[in-house]
UniProtKB/TrEMBL annotation:
Classification via InterPro entries: Aldolase_TIM, DHO_dehydrogenase, DHOD_1A, Dihydro_DH_chainA_dom2, Dihydroorotate_DH_1_2, Dihydroorotate_DH_cat, Dihydroorotate_DH_CS
Pathway, per record: Pyrimidine metabolism; UMP biosynthesis via de novo pathway
Subcellular location: Cytoplasm
GO molecular function: dihydroorotate dehydrogenase (fumarate) activity
Protein name: dihydroorotate oxidase (fumarate)
Gene3D superfamilies: Aldolase class I, Dihydroorotate Dehydrogenase A, chain A, domain 2
Amino acid sequence: MTNRLHATIADINFEGILANASGVHCQTKEELAELLASPYVATAVTKSSTKEVRTGNPKPSYYEFEQGSINSMGLPNNGFDYYLDYVSQDHSQKPVILSVASLSMTEGIELLKRVQDSDFQGITEFNLSCPNVVGKPQVAYDFETTHQILTEVFKFFKKPLGVKLPPYFDFAHFDQMADILNQFPLSHINSVNSIGNGLYVDVETEASVIKPKKGFGGLGGAMILPTALANVRAFRERLNPDIKIIGTGGVTSGEEVFAHILCGADLVSVGTELQRQGIGLFEKLQHELLMIMNEKGYQSIDEFKGQLKTM
Ligand code: RRO
């Protein structure tokens, strides 16, 4: 069963292709351990970590509605050391991905230097796209700064490193960002983070639904699927084949997992729906994906990965 669903990123093998989206079920070691204990989970990604422990933005900072979710968590996390310690332990052969946030260039670089100097040999993911810290724009919407940061980082960073990207909405931006990313030996991109700074309005109460930033927050869940697929596809068509893709956004069933792979995703991660349903969701997703593959006569995801047909 597992060899039908597999992936390789930076020569690290994944048995299965499903993961949590960073931010969901990954703030504590216990939550990460629960993810890794599921036979349907290929890898766990930690909550994005900062140098200092953060409690995050005032609550309520997360809200679910029929078509998706809105959040302005504000990077609550137990601090970089906590997650580095966790990922450095042995997790019975399952890879764990360490997510590091970049609130400032100096802090991001300091943390990545500590990863480089540590015993951790796995994959690190640099989050260039948190939409919810007041006064800190999403780095990856600033192409010059992104290029500058990656240039500095790859002067010393020799371990597998990927980046978490925000969604882009214009071909010029896909082109520009891919040109930048192709200049570096990235292990992967994770695409997409939430669609930044949406606003959900409850007409009955005539109010916004989360407290931080007067209700503005990152959108996730079913409604962002076409944006997520567009980003996975656009980057798969533009990036060097060595840069793998973790597809994130809009997955609620095996059908969307299939669509992400068809667009070129190597791994597929799930946020809002995991928050809704809990870890049992992964068994359902894998079962549904395999049913679709059976119906279509695919033995392995290699037979349709990236093979989207166009008119
Ligand atoms: O913690 C958050 O508010 C958060 C982060 Br760091 C992120 O990358 N994406 C998101 O939707 N929320």
